[in-house]
Structures are given as C-alpha cells and as structure tokens.
Amino acid sequence: MMKTKTVSLAIGALLASTAIAAAADCEDIRIGAAISLTGKYATNGVHTQNGYEFAIKKIAENGGVKMGDKCYNFKVTYYDDESKGDRAATLAERLINQDKVQYMLGPYSSGMTKAIAPVTEKYKIPMIEAEGASRSLFNKGYKYLFAVLSTSEQYLASAVALAEEKAKEAGKTAADVKVAIAVENDPFSLDIRAGVMEDSKKAGMKVVIDEKLPRDLSDMTAILTKVKLLKPDLLVVSGHSKGAATAVRQIGEQKIAAPMIAMTHCEAADVTGNFGASANDILCSTQWAETLTYEDPIFGTAANYETEFKAAYPEYAKKKVPYQTAQASAAIYVYKDAFERAGSLDKEKVRDAIAATDMKTFYGGIKFSDAGNNIAKPMVLRQIQDGKYNVVAPSAFASHKVNYPRKPGS
Question: Distance between CA 245 and CA 28 in Å, rounded?
Fold first, then answer.
C-alpha cells in the first residue's frame, strides 16, 4: 500500500514538473494593466492583481494558451495608477505607445475604468475588465471594452426585494418601508444609488435619507445620526472597501438598530475580521461565492478555486477570498479562451473572439452583450451570520435563511 502511494506521488510530481517545464517553453503574450496599488483603492487593487497572477500561473500549469502547435503564457506589465483617474489614463497611453502592448486588463473601480476606456478605444486595444461595474461604461458604444462582472445597478436590488418581502410577512405593504441611502460620489456607487432608488420607487417605498459619503470615506457620523432619528427599515451603503470599513465600525459604535443593513465590499474590507460582532447580520452584495455550483476544467469548482487561491496566497487563509480576486482570474480565463478560439495574436481577431464569448467558469457564466457587459451571471446577497458569510438571496441560490430583523448591537 505504501509502495503504491509512493509511486503515485512520484508520478504526480513528474507530471507537475513536466507541465512546468513545458510552460517554460511557451512564448509570452504581453498584457498591460494600470492598477491601484496605492491610494484609496489599494486594498482592492492588490486583490485584483493577485487574482490576475493566480490565474496566469494556473493556466501556465495547465499547458498555457494553445494555438496550433505553439503555446503561450500571459505576462502582465503593471503600473500603479495611485487611485487617480488622470494617472490611469496616462499610464494606459504609456502601455500602448511605449510598451507596445496590444491587449489590456482593466484597473480597479468604475472610475479608473472610465478613465482608461476612451484610451483603449481610441487605439482599438481590447480590454477585458473585472472591476468596473458602472452601467455608464456600457452606454458609450465602446467596441473594445468587455466586463466579466454584473453591472452595478444590480448589486443591491435583492436587498430592496427582501425588504418588501419582510414587510409583507409582517402584514405591512411596501409603502410602509423606509429606505436610507449613503453612497460614495463615484460612478459605481452612484449607479448603485440609482438602482436602489429605481427599485424603491417601483415598489412604492419611501426614501427618507439620500446622502453622499464624505470624500475621504472616513466618517459617516452625520448620516448615522439621521438614521437614528428617522429609523429606516433598510440602510444601504456603498463606498468600496474603505467605506464599508467605516460604516461597519461606526454602525457598531453608534449601535444603529436598522432592521436591515446592506452594503458592498464587505469581504474586501474584511469587516468580520476587523469589527467582529458589529458585522453580524449585515447583508453583503457579492458577484461570486465559493458555495455556488459553478465549475470549469482549469479552476475546478468555485470551492476549489477558493482552496487553491488560499494555498497560493496564505494571507487570505483566515478570511473569505473576496470576489474581486475571483473575477480578476475570470478575466484572464476569458483571454485564454478568446486567444485559442481566434487562433491568432491579431488584436482584431482576438477582439471578435472576446465578443463571441459564451463560457461556463468557476466564477459563473460569461457572455457579453453588444455593449460589452456580462449578461450570463446574477448577483447574490450574503448575510454575515455569526461571523460566516451565508448566501440568503435570491432564493434560488440561498444556502441559509435571512436573519431579520437585525439585532441592535449585533
């Protein structure tokens, strides 16, 4: 028995070393990326870069990008956009004109993507992006921009529907539901606001607070004072990682008792690790969860992706892998698929292959509309229940029942 196990391990090691050796013989496909490694978006910028690099390594280990009798590996040239839109645009110009890249990966955030997209469009450079969800990116007629993630107006739509459902269970109507909105003044968060406002209006709910978070996202005391006074049934917050951290900390400090609180970027801000019980029962929108039944031949299941990513990046071992990393890896995977279907390094042929993408991945379905946004994957809501993130909506994807109302001081 021991001998058989030893032989199996030896064969496995040989196959792995052979794959690595083969990958080393592959040529490079160079891709450019301006990404936030410093500044207010740095946390998610690093998550994004890690997702890109994990996928690049995983694809190389699986034989690389195969075109005819040749193989290729991806190699990314990164520059730090410092979370500044004007710098992001300048760096995109540099990557295209000086570094001569023919393909781009997106930056972090809708704002940075909005700054870069006109540049890549001008030079007809395909860009697959994973972190710019603003629907305003997809009404400009861009032909070279493709996003693997769901658009931002969908992020917290489930929270509005859930609030209406709970009102009806209590013998009330949607007209009895009061909504408070606090968002960052950036394209992504303003789209979330627009989506929540639109859904609330359709349902007949009252929006009693509609506020912008302070520019530095460091203090929402004034907004929370209004929340205490007006007692909304649903509080919606969107301010990327820093805004999520500020919100959960101050909601705990001020003992905000709103029955339902929903926000973005919970995992990326590690609100459970940083604020403990203050994060309990908060609803968190997510593009992806490791419990979902998605799967592909390279990354395996969603759960397998999480396990292998944590093994590669031990700093994530004690927290949830944020969806930002998963969707970044998905963007790389789409490039692999497109290059292989194009059978060419010609950027126009690659662009057309990206546009025709229709694939199942560990991250979910990916299929692009004519506008370039992904139309094959839903958003889900997870609730932090005793420190764990459990999918609670939509019901088709729910693994747990929602805790409602949220307990004061939870």
Answer: 39
